[in-house]
Structures
1.
Amino acid sequence: MSNSSSLTQFLLLAVADRRELQLLHFWLFLGISLAALLANGLILSAVACDHHLHTPMGFFLLNLSLTDLGCICTTVPKAMHNSLWDTTTISYTGCAAQVFLLIFFLRVEFHLLTIMCYDRYVAICKPLHYGTLLGSRACAHMAAAAWTTGFFSALLHTANTFSLPLCQGNALGQFFCEIPHILKLSCSHSGYLRELGLLGVSACFCFGCFIFIVFSYVQIFRAVLGIPSEQGRHKAFSTCLPHLAVLSLFLSTAAFAYLKPPSIFSPSLDLVVSLMYSVVSPTLNPLIYSLRNQELKDALRKLMAGFRGNNKVRLFLCRTFQM
């Protein structure tokens, strides 16, 4: 029997047993993390540098890219380290940090997606009040509320989870630290029920946000279908499709990971679903938003053209000094 006071580390799930597959997973994680860093970095740079994107949607998109980077940097580096060095250990404090940061970034991301839904609702259903309802101060307050709520939610869940006595070993059936897998190690019935209660409150709050999103999109679709011109309907739908795609990917994978019935439990399925909402979704979000957002694509083209121009200048200077 072990106790949480004597635990110094946890054992994470090995992604693969064979050394060749471990190295393959390392390179896959490396490629995914570099792609996520590049894509989200370009989004951040484009929004910051192009004044055409200094809009409420651009502001929230910038915040969303920050949360995507946070999710990637929370789980992937340790997975890469374990795959490269053929180990499965993570320290007790490292595990607590992973739990806190992952909950923090995921909660903030969901709140931001809810706010972005409100942005689309106001833009399409109440366009004359857009500047009033989504002014710079209102946007800053909503973003601050999302980050603050995510911080306190993560702090509450992490503090409660790691205050539980753990007596079922230290092996986690996941490649990163996650609350449901830590709760399985607990031997405190009351503490376990307390954390389940907190998770239930969080689930109710998230369900309320989901109802708001559904209601908003019902109103949005009614307004769009009432637009007389086909071009106007197409433009309105184009502004909503990226948000709907990102939201659907995030909610479907996260909900399945936490709400799937025990009868369909499978370690491989659990691993794939966790990869989807913690790694794949943050990597794909910039691509999804840039595909249908013409202003964002134009800003990215200008940014890339600037990079190419700077490379030509540097090459010219190098050749000049070599002569």
2.
Amino acid sequence: MPHTDKDLGDNYRTVHHIVLEASEECVEPSEPRARWWSGGVASTSVACFVAPIDLVKSHMQTQVTKKGMVETAAKVIRLRGFMGFYDGFSATALRQMTCTNIRFGIYEAGRYAEPIRDNNFAKLALAGFAGAVGSICGIPTDLINVRMQNDMKESEAERRNYRHVFDALIRIPREEGWRAFYAGGTAAALKASVGTCGQLALYDIVKTELSETFDMEDGFVLHFDSSLISSIFSSIISHPFDVLKTLMMNARPGEFRSIFHACMYMMRFGILSPFRGLAPTMLRKGPATISLFIIYEQLRLRFGYVED
């Protein structure tokens, strides 16, 4: 029997309906995006566990007499006991909830933009910008943290004796002026910018490459491998800036005439001086970065949202 126009129309609609259903099934759902608070919550959680290592690193960076990590830790216990490892933690927590949260928020908001999504160089540039902006907001708390960590090494007469971060926020501008909040600010911004490139952007790039090359699922193994690789590179490339930042923030007013003067002082132990404290940094940053991204990714998967 010859097919009528009605039969042909019915067949076309049936085939069209089947194609639409198949295409809808093939479309992969968009990955959930992290909430604005995820970076701050994840980084503050990790800071609770790595604060002792961070304090030892800070002491090694500012020491006059060269000491190893174990010897430095023993001195902290001798001076302040085990609770001394948490000197400055109130400033650390406030810095994580502001500085780190801003870095994650800016990067997370920009990484899905069309010019950035598939461009690794654009991701690195975005991360550098996010790190610099976050650092500018977080330099005062970073400075307070460094000072509170190193205060135990000073003589009784020279100790600043900040009771907590808010006490320091009131006293520093009153005693030294507002500009004192940004002592070492240039080094801190450089360190944060370079460190964010090596941490956020590199993590994102490595995660994408591992996922596509080895067909890895968006889960624990992928997050662990990506964060481990990014932590190694981030620690090495940002550490010299971290040493310089710590020296300038812990300095007395007028101790360093310029950032160049601080760089010369940083080299006092020889060519490897910019990497003083690298061992505790690696010991801290490896587990810290892995834990940070695993917590961050879990928050994203559990509480994230899908863009319409």
